[in-house]
Amino acid sequence: IIGKHHRLFCAETLYKSDEYRHFWESLNQGEFFSGLFPRLNRQGDPLWFRATYNPVFNSDGQLYKIVKFATDVTADVLRNQREQEAAVHAWDMAVQTRESAQNGANVIENSILMIDRMAQGMGAVSTDISRLNNQSESIDDMV
């Protein structure tokens, strides 16, 4: 990587962007940058660098060069992305489970209400049958 142009690791859309132009303008004005930077390997696959961009000045205070120190942290970033995706998936599953449990509780509550109504109706029918039975016995006694 030493001596290679920085642009080799950038997507064309990045190095043609206003953001990228502003980044280099800021560096050329002596601003220091540090952070996580997405880049590409030769095959176009994503790379992630934790890097510092350090303006270096000569004895006259003029910008001499920009020195970049970078560490490839792609594996860490990809692992963090997978963990984040897993956490989002777990959250979605928890929400769905809660909704299913609430729906199940609603079904049970409605079933209990229907059973109570049926029991009340059966109680009324039982009372009517008892009354009819008593009337039938009274009629039998009269006959």
TrEMBL record:
Signal peptide segment: none
SUPFAM superfamilies documented for this protein: Methyl-accepting chemotaxis protein (MCP) signaling domain, PYP-like sensor domain (PAS domain)
Domain PAC: 33-85
Coiled-coil region(s): none
Pfam families: PAS_3 (PF08447)
Protein name per the record: PAS domain-containing protein
Protein's organism: Enterobacter hormaechei
Classification lineage: Bacteria, Pseudomonadati, Pseudomonadota, Gammaproteobacteria, Enterobacterales
